[in-house]
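Lay summary. Proteins are chains of building blocks that fold into shapes, and those shapes determine what they do. In this project we predict the shape from the chain. Here is one chain we studied, written as its sequence of building blocks.
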Amino acid sequence: MSLPVHGGETAAFALLGSVVADLQAKGTVAILSGLKNKVRKVQPGFSEKTFGYGGFLQFAKAAATRGVITLEWDPEEDDYILGVPAAKA
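And here is the predicted shape, written in a compact code that computers can read:
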């Protein structure tokens, strides 16, 4: 299965949200570093560049703006932590 380019951004955001939700369900913190590799394990052909994003952080920020995920800087991890909004968990 591959994500369609046109209209596929919504599906790509949903994919990101499901990966983050799965990590949360397992009690694992979803840290931005390495998360793209986890998304690619589910969807091997995934690339945020397909949807016009310059990098994975930009893609994650767009997903957070749409309310699919939460994105918060964690100074202890020195990285962004992603979550699923309570209403979607």
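What the prediction tells us: The chain has a mean pLDDT of 90.
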